[in-house]
Give the backbone structure.
Amino acid sequence: MLSFFRRIINSKAGIVVTFIVLGVIALAFAAGDVTGLSGSKTGLTGDAVASVGGQKVVAAELRNRVQTELQAARQQDPTATMEQLLAQGGLQSTLDRTINSLALDAFGHDQGMVVSKRSVDGVIASIPGLRGPNGQFDPNLYQRLLADQKLTDAQIRTDIARDIMAQQLMLPTQGATQVPMKVALPYASLMLERRSGQIGIIPASAADAGPAPTDADLAAFYRRNVARYTVPERRVVRYATVSPDQVKARAVPTDAEVAAAYKQQAGRFAAAEKRTISQVVVADRAGADALAAKVRGGAAIADAARGAGLEPAVQTGVTKTAYAATSSPAIADAAFAAGKGALVGPIRGPLGWIVARVDVIEQTAGKTLEQARPELVADLSKQKLQQALADVHDKLDDALARNATFDEAVADQKLSARTTPALLANGTDPDAPAKPDPAVVPVVAAAFQMVEGDPAQLVPVGTDGGFAVVAIGRVVAAAPRPLAQVRTQVLADVSADRARTAARKLATVILARVDKGMPLAQAMAASGRRLPPVQPAAASRAQLAAQQGNVQPPLALMFSMAQGHAKLLEAPDRAGWMIVKLDTIVPGNAAGTPAAIAGTRGSIARLVGREYAEQFARAVRNVVGVKTDAGALGRVRADLAGTGN
């Protein structure tokens, strides 16, 4: 199953809405997760799936949110499907997050809490995908992405405000955690527990697979395992790319534009004096006089400052105007009138008394138009290139909005259309296996998010501002390859399946002998087969925890067994079977390990905080009042799965 879905649906840590809102996910991927709490199930009228206080969650809104969540998952795994999302509980999870967001928002307003417009602005401006070439928030990009995602500014702002409200309510709840030492000690000791045992491997290749399979055997195996030989849905994609190279001819600045830019930025190219200044800000005049006296007496300004418990600030290569902006005009006048090495001050500044030393004086000559031309041309070219790309993007967007076909839109902009072979969602061609073309992967991923008959779409490509016009050429439904075409593969699979079955029978015989008290190595040797030697295995629970889910299965099994027992485990990649025997268990004792206890207390505290937050959210839902309609939810599920009437 997809790890992305598991993280979103099952994460208790998501109680504070980690993604902000699904609408913002759409923007962020084009450019909070409140943990699910089941509500009461009573009938509702109309198109409402749920009612939260006086607000309703309608079916269309819920469908859109689930589809947006799927789009977000496909940014990480282009093969993600709606069926997988629904199977992982994505529909109920999305509904619960929506309900909790509405409930917390209503509860917060009832308590007199508010979310300022400035807070919402800050969240929007912080989305990386909404930053322009200068690294700042680009309002035009924001509006274009809203249009692309069929969202409104009001929807985004409402959702963000609700999420901020949820964070304001939930974060204090999560942080209110204390775990006593006596509670943490047993768990910390458990982490120090150490287990050791043995692992015996029975490879499938060591077993007798029996006679060669007949044609009837192959046909029967093929029918039983037809999904194994089924090619997933493929799509023929039509696309045309627009890259910076294609429009760079339009981005060459004229002499007039260069001259105008030079005039507009006259201060940038004028002659200037820059200075490096070390300064110390002292709270009172007496302290400033004492520090200045030490410097005049020969002490370095840095040493004199540190002697007073202060640290000098050094401004390197600043102009008078820039220095005045950080201090005051009077201080800048004095600093730029002094010679190199001179001490300035004490002079009263905005935050106290300033003592400064002029370390370096640098005279920068002005630049003529011709001298500044390379810099100006580079800057203007970059600006015009971005504008040229934006112009083509806007013209294509307008044409598609007026129902122009893919061919019409591409021809109007004189673009070269391309057609892919029938590709899988990850961009590979099952008929010609090879690594997918990185340039085509986002194009194919976008095509798999579309429905046959949808109009062409504009899709970002690469990181240089390029994009592509994408349309579905043809959908090739999933279908099994004929047996004759995959006969060699089926033959290999039948033989491997028989070998695994024989290996399991052999492993079961060996396990029975071990269960009767025979040492594992002796039982393996008594099998009459040439098997790999028995391997020792040992680990502590702390070591397993440090591997963060990447624990080897035999070690994980050892920590779920009773001492002296043995169990059967399938080998990785279905290569055979393993017999895992647990020999010893050495209990841990963390009483003399304060660091282990402290770490355990922190881990338990986080769990306790999440539990507090979950219980708080549940209580808020009870106060606000939540009703859900199981029938309406079922109809939404059927629509999303494509099984609705």
About this structure: Residues 369-401 form the longest helix (33 residues). Residues 1-45 have pLDDT under 50 and may be disordered. The two ends are 28 Å apart (CA to CA). DSSP finds 26 helices and 18 strands in the chain.
